[in-house]
Amino acid sequence: MGFHTKPNIFVSNVHLKVANLEQSLEFYKNVIGFQVLSKTANKADLTTDGKRALLTIEQIENATPKSPRTTGLYHYALLLPTRKDLGKVIQHFIDTRYPVQGASDHLVSEALYLADPDGNGIEIYSDRPKEVWQWQGEEVLMDTRPMDVEGVLKEAGGEKWTGLPAETVMGHIHLHVADTKETVNFYCEGLGFEVVCRYGGQAFFISTGKYHHHIGLNTWAGVGAPPAAEDSVGLRTFTLVLPDEESRGKTVEQLKAIGATVKEADGVITTKDPSKNRIVLQV
Asked: pTM to 2 decimals?
């Protein structure tokens, strides 16, 4: 879990717009295994340890379905502490007969894929030890292969699923973007990430501290795809944690130097990437 602490820059929270708060809460509590940290009439913060809000869901007025050809969320990814925990999640889905969209071996990690009631993509994964990751120069070797589901299930040893472990973190976020060149420049020159893996010219994976990725960027929704409508379900914001105030100040200057917009209101600093994905910069 050291890739999600200082001095790295990492995603700590994802804020989603949903059509029906109570329906989403039922899903996130009973299917995914979150606990409610706080709740209002139209918004809830979800946690695994009773302290940190990893996910925020907000019901919006007159919500419209998510368009498949727009920028925004591809998926957010919950990183479990161990492979054993992933096995317990798989057994939970088997027991409840909840459908998943995929189960993959990415060499650096093993991952399950599914969606919430609004179609927001979710990955639940565990990392392989960093010592077995293979690097070719500055890039880590990643792939998409079938998961050894039986092997992962065996790790669980028949133990009962009781929800997400307290040590679960927001492992990464993967975004649909309109243009990879401009977007990679924004995240690398502006925010300080490094490219650590490329899938042709359509997908880039970036990180700090040589993680396999804190953020994924792809043009699979189409080059030049427009941002989703404001009343569409999907991503509202995601939060990046920077090491300290000095780092945040430097980052703000870097963003301004490349022409990015930075706003501050009530002590909250935000920016938008070239595809209009909104980012909160936190210390």
From this structure: 0.97
